[in-house]
Amino acid sequence: MSIVLVTGTSTDVGKTVVTAALASVALGSGRSVAVLKPAQTGVGVGEPGDLAEVDRLTGGGATLVELARYPDPLAPDVAARRSGLPSPTLADVVAAATDLDVGHDLTLIEGAGGLLVRLGAEGFTLRDVATALSAPVVLVVASGLGTLNHTALTVEALRMSAVRCAGLVIGSWPRHPELADYTNRDELASVSGVPVRGAVPAGAGLLGAGEFKAIADIAVNDLVEYLPV
Ligand SMILES: Nc1ncnc2c1ncn2[C@@H]1O[C@H](COP(=O)(O)OP(=O)(O)OP(=O)(O)O)[C@@H](O)[C@H]1O
Ligand SMILES: [Mg+2]
């Protein structure tokens, strides 16, 4: 099985950009890639969501599957209740991931927000998905103030459920790093027990697919070695 879940310490830390970087590197080495987004919030029908961003940054080529989308920019279970639209169950997400895994060398699953955000029916979370699939998680983190606590909390929550964390990736490494960024980059591994295995430079998410691939090869290449592909 080659399934990897991408979670973050919070929303907006760069999960989509890191998912695209992993997909780009894998596609570039000739592997087939699928990206599953169990629940997309904050976008309406026909609008571009996270998978459209992955498609743009990778230049196409990955299989993209979104199970549900809701217009309100809220946690998926709340947005689902407000919209009256159906929510996926844990079994739906596991079945979709398992199906994609059969036909692809690497299947990436991007959560919504942080690890314990409720994704759908019965309040299951990305941690439950990782547990059900026995798949590792990549944790996308920030580099600025506050990240040491958020990262330690998330890794502790993964450990409580015996979910393997394949590595931390800084989602957006600033162009002009400050003291907190430099020191956090060194401290993240010691406070969490998980090494930093990648850092995507700020601005990379704005590039076209060709330049993004070149950056991704450097930014997440160390991490790829630790993924089950
Ligand atoms: N390295 C980067 N370069 C350029 N832009 C970035 C980078 N990382 C993040 N961003 C930008 O920051 C915003 C949030 O990033 P992203 O969408 O990847 O976060 P996310 O963790 O996937 O958020 P969500 O919880 O909404 O899925 C986006 O507008 C994205 O383009
Ligand atoms: Mg995202």
Kindly describe this structure:
There is one protein chain. The protein has 229 residues and is α/β, with parallel strands linked by helices. It has a single domain, classed as Rossmann fold. Helix content is 42%, strand content 21%. It is built from nine helices and nine strands. The strands form two sheets. Strands 4-2-6-1-7-8-9 form a seven-stranded parallel β-sheet, with helices on both faces. A two-stranded parallel ribbon has the order 3-5. The chain is globular. The termini are close together. The mean pLDDT is 96. Bound molecules: adenosine-5'-triphosphate (ATP) and magnesium ion. The site of adenosine-5'-triphosphate has 20 residues, from helix 1, strand 6, strand 8 and strand 9.
